[in-house]
Each structure stands twice: as C-alpha cells, then as structure tokens.
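Re: that backbone. Tokens:
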C-alpha cells in the first residue's frame, strides 16, 4: 500500500520540475492527483504518464495569476475525485533581481504568483480539507524564504511571507486536524533554476556559470533533483507526518545549515 493510498488532491505548477516529480510520486504512492498548470498540454502529458503507470489523475489548465482561476481549481479537483485530502501550492516565480529601479510589473508578478494566487487557492481549500480526516496543506517556499537572498530581496520577502503564512495557518487549523507545512528547496535542477542566478533584469549568465557559482556554496556540491523535493513533499502530505505541522523543511543539500 502506498503512502498516499486512498487520498486525493491537487498540485499547482505540476507540469514541470518539482511539481511534475511530485505528481508522479504522489500518484505512485496511491493518490489521485489533479495536475494544475498554465501549460495545459504539458499537464495532460503528466496525466498520461501517471495513467500509463496505472495511477489516477486529471489535468486542470489554469493561469493561476487569475485569482478566480486560482480559487476555482479547488472545486474542480474536488469534483473530479469527490474529495480533497491534500493541496500542494507549488506555484511560484523568481521575481525581480532589482530593488532600485525594478519594474512595477515584475514586483506585481512576484506578489501575484508567490502569494496572492497561493492564498486564494488555500482559502478555497480549507473548507474542503475540513471535510476529511488528515487534511494537509503544503507550500513551496525556498531557502530564500528562510535566510536572505542578495540576488532577489523581493523573492526573499515573498518566500518569507509564504513561511509566515504557513506557520500562522498551522496554528489556526491545528484544532481542525489540518496540517500545514512548507518545503524550502535549495538549488534544484529544473527549468526555473537558471533564473535564480540570472534574472531577466540582471546581467544574463549561462546556465553552466550559474550552476558552477551556486555549487561553491552548497555543502553537498550538487544541485538537488526534483524527485528529492517530491519525496519530502510526499512525506509531509502523508499521514506519516501526522504530528508535523508548522514546519518549514529545507531540502537544500545543507545550504541553510551553514
Ligand atoms: N528550481 C529551483 O531551484 C527552486 C528553488 C527554490 C524554490 N523554487 C520554487 O519552486 C517552484 C517552481 O519551481 P520549479 O523549479 O519546479 O519550476 P519549473 O520551472 O520546472 O515549473 C514551473 C511550472 O509553473 C507553471 N506556471 C508558470 N506560471 C504559471 C501560472 N501563471 N499559472 C499556472 N502555472 C504556471 C509553468 O507552466 C511550469 O510548468 C516555485 O515556487 C519556486 O519559487 C524553485
């Protein structure tokens, strides 16, 4: 029996990177997974992969910058499976590198994708999660949400906010039996990784250069794999983590231990 056997839920930004790895892992552990992403075609591909291994999944195409869509996906996922046991708010955006002279649109996008949308989805999820036993909410922050990132103070600010929201919500929902936790990835080998060391409003650097400079500060001297974050997310979303709430778990090769 899988770790998530009999459970159902949704993962946002699940067509690529860690979200995709999570969708595959959660499904392999027995969960029915709503794969939510702006890229509907890529989400369908993930669903096909899950079905090919005998799992249960649906794709939900949604641009989550649209708050109405960010709210609606909860009802759509719950309708597909008849209930909701977990929600992994994985959506996020690297934000601007600049503070002085940053573009207002870059700031707005960072707020919208890392916070506004995530909070909108969570708002709708709470009543659904109250209906089940063992409901779990998971957020994706970052090591930049635990310690300052000189590369993007704005990203650091919004990812700290995600951790703060998660901890406060854990307190609010503890008596309802809903657990709320956050994963804080370090540098993970996904398409988004390069943007952290080379944001669009910063001097552009090749991926190899970003990777090499990143590895000088990572004790384990390698990038993380999306599957390694998916494993932590799976644990935190499962009943194996039944006494864990309000945690912000670094998955970072030791980066924040320094
Ligand atoms: N990769 C890293 O090194 C790293 C490190 C720390 C934290 N994170 C966090 O992880 C999350 C995403 O990371 P990833 O590396 O798995 O990303 P990724 O680039 O592999 O995938 C991002 C996904 O988000 C989807 N997306 C983008 N905008 C969207 C929107 N408006 N609505 C719906 N879907 C949208 C894309 O289509 C894509 O499938 C973010 O919260 C990010 O802040 C990443």
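Recovered sequence:
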């Amino acid at each position: 029996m899988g770790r998530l056997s009999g459970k159902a839920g949704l993962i946002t930004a699940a067509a690529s990177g860690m979200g995709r790895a999570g969708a595959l892992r959660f499904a392999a552990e027995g969960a029915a997974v709503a794969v939510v992403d702006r890229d509907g075609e890529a989400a369908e591909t993930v669903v096909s992969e899950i079905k090919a291994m005998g799992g249960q999944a649906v794709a939900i195409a949604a641009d989550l910058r649209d708050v109405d869509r960010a709210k609606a996906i909860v009802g759509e996922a719950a309708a597909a499976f008849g209930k909701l046991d977990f929600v992994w708010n994985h959506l996020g955006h690297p934000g601007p590198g600049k503070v002085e002279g940053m573009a207002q649109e870059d700031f707005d996008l960072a707020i919208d994708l890392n916070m506004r949308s995530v909070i909108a989805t969570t708002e709708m999820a709470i009543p659904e999660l109250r209906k089940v036993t063992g409901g779990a909410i998971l957020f994706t922050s970052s090591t930049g949400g635990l310690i300052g990132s000189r590369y993007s103070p704005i990203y650091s600010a919004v990812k700290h906010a995600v951790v703060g929201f998660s901890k406060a919500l854990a307190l609010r929902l503890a008596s309802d039996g809903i657990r709320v936790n956050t994963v804080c990835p370090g540098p993970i080998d996904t398409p988004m990784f390069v943007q952290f060391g080379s944001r669009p409003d910063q001097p552009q650097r090749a991926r190899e250069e970003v990777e090499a400079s990143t590895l000088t500060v990572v004790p384990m001297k390698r990038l993380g794999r999306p599957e390694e974050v998916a494993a932590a997310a799976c644990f935190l979303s499962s009943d194996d983590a039944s006494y864990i709430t309000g945690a912000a778990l670094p998955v970072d090769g030791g980066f924040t231990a320094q």
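The mean pLDDT is 97. The first strand starts at residue 8 and ends at 12.
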